[in-house]
Amino acid sequence: MSKRQQALFIFLVWLCVYPGVVLLAALVGWLFPDAPVWLRILLSTGVTVPCVSLVVLPWVNKVVAKAQGQSVAELKRAQAKAAKRAGS
User: Fold this and answer.
1) What is the 3-state secondary structure (H, E, C) of 38-72?
2) What's the sign of the alpha-carbon dihedral 73, 59, 53, 5?
3) Neighbours of 60 (CB within 10 A)
4) SS3 of 25, please?
5) CB 22: neighbour CB atoms within 10 A?
6) This prediction's pTM
7) pLDDT given at position 54
8) End-to-end CA distance of the chain, in Å?
């Protein structure tokens, strides 16, 4: 993955995750105002992590692949080759 692809990927993930985390934290704080902070964070991350894994990352992969004129499978193969070269 090129530096440009990495930067685009990171920016898009952040752009999707940040508002979700803020909204979920506010919602959990509103629903459970007397809950301890650790419980609010647990509930918030319990929703955020699956959303990122199942919704945000696949969407970002599609956007990055499309921006590079590739399919998602081609993008993943290129990422795997780059990781293999970096590990060698």
Assistant:
1) HHHHHHHHHHHHHHHHHHHHHHHHHHHHHHCCCCH
2) positive
3) 21
4) helix
5) 11
6) 0.68
7) 93
8) 16
Query: How far is Cα 23 from Cα 43, in angstroms, rounded to an integer?
Result: 12
Q: Label residue 7 left, alpha or beta by phi (over 0 means left) and psi (-120 to 50 means alpha).
A: alpha
Cα 30–chain centre separation: 25
* Residue 36 dihedral angles phi and psi, to the nearest 5°: -65, 160
Residue 71, pLDDT above cutoff 90: yes
CB-facing half-sphere around the CA of 86: CA atoms within 13 A = 8
pLDDT tens, residue by residue, 32-68 = 899 888 888 888 888 888 988 999 889 888 988 898 8
Token pair belonging to 57: 């990352």
